[in-house]
Structures are given as C-alpha cells and as structure tokens.
Design a protein that fits this description.
The chain is mainly alpha-helical and 389 residues long. It has a single domain, classed as Up-down Bundle (Growth Hormone, Chain: A). Helices cover 77% and strands 0% of the residues. It is globular.
Length: 389
C-alpha cells in the first residue's frame, strides 16, 4: 500500500475518534442529557464550548510537541488518550467531570489533526492531494454516521450506553490507527527535511487562516443546536433527530470524497467557493423554506463540511510549496479554535437570551458566505515560498 494512502487511513481513524466521536457524537445526546436532568440547557451549550476551547490549547502546544517527540508516536499516544476520554465520559459525575474530559479530548483533536494532515499533505501526489485529505477528513463523517446510526438503540437503555457505544467504536478505530502509523518516519526526514522550520506566511496563507476562522463559526449552529432544534423546536422525535444526524454522517462520508474529487478536477480555488456557498445555504435555507426536504438537504450538505476543510488543507500545502504545512496549519487550527471559543460562547449566550434558533443559524450562514467571498480572491498560481532558516 502506498504511504500516502496509509497515512490517509491513519488520519481518517484519528479524526473519526477525535472529531467524529469526541466532538460530534455529543450533538445527538444533547436533548437526552437535558431531558434526564444530567445537564441544564446552558450547561449543555458550555460543554460544547469547552470542547472547542481545548482545540485552541492543543493547537498552541502541537509545534512544541512536534519538536520534542516523534510525530507518529505522538499521534498514536493521542489516540490512546482520546479513548481514555471517551471511556471516562461514561461515568455520570456531573457537569464539571464531563466538562474536564470534553476539554481534554478537544486538546487531543488538535494534535491529531495538525500532525496527521501534515503527513497526508507531505506524502500525497500533487494530483491526488484533495482526494487524500478528503479521505482523512472522511473520518469525521464516519464517526458521526456510526454514532448516530447506533446511538438511538443504546440511548433507549440510558445515556450511559450512548457513551459506551462511542467508546467501543473508538477502540476499534484505535487499533486501525496503530497499524497505519506503525514505523512512520518523522516528518523532518521526508522529502525536503524542512518540516520543523518556520515558513513565512504569504497573503493566501493569511486569507486561509481567516477562512478557517469563519468556517469554524459557521459550524457551531449545526454542531450544537441542530438535533436540539429538530427535536424541541420542530417537535420531532429523538429518533428523527438521530436520523438527521445520521444523514450528517452520510454527508460526511459521501460528500467529503465528492468535494475532493471535484477539487482535483476543477481546481481548489473554485471548489472552495462552491462548497462554502453550499454550506451557507444549508445553514439558512431551513428557516425560510417550510419543507422537510430542506431539513434533509441541510443535514446532508452540512455533513459534507469536512470536504471544505480537506480542500483548505490542500490549498494550504500549495501556499507554502514543498515545506511541511505544520506551521501554517497550526495557525489555521488556532484560528478555528479561537473563533469557535469566541463564537461558541457568543452564540450559546445569544441563544440563552433570545431562545431563537433563527439568529444562531443566520450567523453561521453569514460566516460561511464571507468565507466563500474570501476564497474567490485567492491567487490562481500560489507562490512557492522558501523555508525560513
């Protein structure tokens, strides 16, 4: 098996554990957590914000960890810690306990994402870079799909069994990850050897950092409130809510690969404009068109959002030339984390004060639309920058 394909699989299971299970499997549990009195409405929102806050912390420390530890071993250790977090979440010790482990797995997600995607973009052929990164980000959709497809059955027996379900899937993915990253070389010995040296940020790189921040704000409404909106606002059953979240997972599997193939065919820039425009429509349309098919379409299109992250990662690699993208990707992850912390707290507080889902999703849609506009200004031929010694 080619190395780029193996590392894409490794990134896929890593993001399945960290993002698919560690972050997004929480969403279909929110109504149940509130219903059984495990968390209040505001606590459920702040738990989600804590998870996003951990993302910032992880992004800050990942370059330091990369300089002092073998990257592939660091990824495997992070996968192990993520499993511990999923198992610890099983125990019903209240808001502070759950918040601690959701914060921790947020930290771990950033480490896994930065390092695993750096491997993928370094080793993937240029004509397959969007497909390779899409395969990695497809892990988000797989995690959402498995947890949403199985969770309703387990949740019927109690919220604890929902966490057990996530942990079991995570252990299986962990075993695959150990195989994928076995004997992977350090990033600084591959190709040019410049992986750990700083690279000056070009204008396109700076634009992509802003785009990632807007993208992360746009994700918040669906990530925290989508199932809650379907169950409590539209008065549909928890099974219906879980079904919609399963459609999000299917979108993450099919849509992510679709966007990757489209990007390899028509180019990364135009693909980014199209995907962000689609995500903006998915956030806004359900509140202006009273049709259940729009709800279904919104779930599916939102699910394809890892495809945009994959294309952005490929475009970031182009922006820095042959060097490793750890430096630029770190800033992009920081942008994601910071925007999600600030945006998460703002949107949670906005919802608590207004009790309006419409305002929340309008903000998310506007953020995606602004990201599309910025992507339309990216240069056609990204400059190749020399690494800074």
């Amino acid at each position: 098996m080619q190395l780029w394909l193996r590392y894409s699989i490794g990134a896929q299971v890593g993001l399945l554990i960290g993002m698919g299970l560690g972050r997004f499997s929480y969403t279909p549990m929110v109504p149940v957590l509130i219903e059984v009195g495990y968390l209040s409405e505001s606590e459920a929102g702040y738990i989600g914000a804590l998870n996003l806050g951990g993302y910032v912390i992880g992004a800050i420390f990942t370059p330091w960890l990369s300089r002092h530890f073998h990257e592939a071993r660091l990824i495997k250790f992070s996968l192990f810690l993520a499993i511990i977090c999923l198992i610890a979440s099983i125990f019903p010790f209240g808001f502070l306990w759950l918040g601690l482990w959701r914060l921790t797995i947020g930290i771990i997600v950033a480490i896994i994402m930065i390092l695993s995607i750096a491997y993928v973009t370094r080793f993937a052929p240029k004509h397959r870079i969007a497909l390779a990164t899409s395969m990695g980000f497809m892990g988000v959709g797989l995690g959402i799909f498995f947890s949403s497809a199985i969770l309703p059955t387990f949740l019927a027996h109690g919220i604890i069994w929902g966490w057990v379900c996530s942990a079991v899937i995570g252990v299986i993915a962990f075993c695959i990850g150990c195989w994928a990253w076995h004997e992977a070389p350090p990033l600084d010995t591959s190709k040019t050897g410049y992986a750990k040296r700083e690279t000056k940020l070009c204008l396109d790189g700076k634009k992509l950092i802003i785009v990632q921040g807007l993208f992360s704000i746009g994700l918040i409404p669906h990530s925290i409130y989508w199932v809650d909106y379907i169950v409590r606002e539209l008065q549909l059953s928890i099974e219906q809510g879980a079904f919609q979240w399963m459609l999000v997972g299917i979108g993450g599997i099919i849509g992510t690969i679709f966007w990757g193939r489209i990007a390899d065919f028509i180019g990364l820039n135009i693909s980014l404009v199209i995907v962000f425009a689609a995500l903006a429509s998915a956030a806004i349309a359900p509140f202006y068109f009273d049709d259940f098919s729009i709800i279904v379409l919104s779930s599916f299109i939102f699910g394809s959002q890892p495809g945009s992250a994959a294309i952005v990662a490929g475009r970031a690699q182009q922006a820095i030339g042959e060097s490793s993208m750890i430096s630029l990707w770190r800033y992009m992850v920081l942008s994601v984390g910071a925007a999600q912390v600030i945006g998460g707290v703002f949107l949670v507080e906005l919802f608590n004060r207004t009790n309006s889902y419409t305002f929340i999703f309008l903000v998310g849609g506007a953020s995606m639309a602004f990201a599309a506009l910025i992507c339309a200004t990216l240069s056609k031929q990204p400059p190749k920058l020399e690494p800074r010694h």
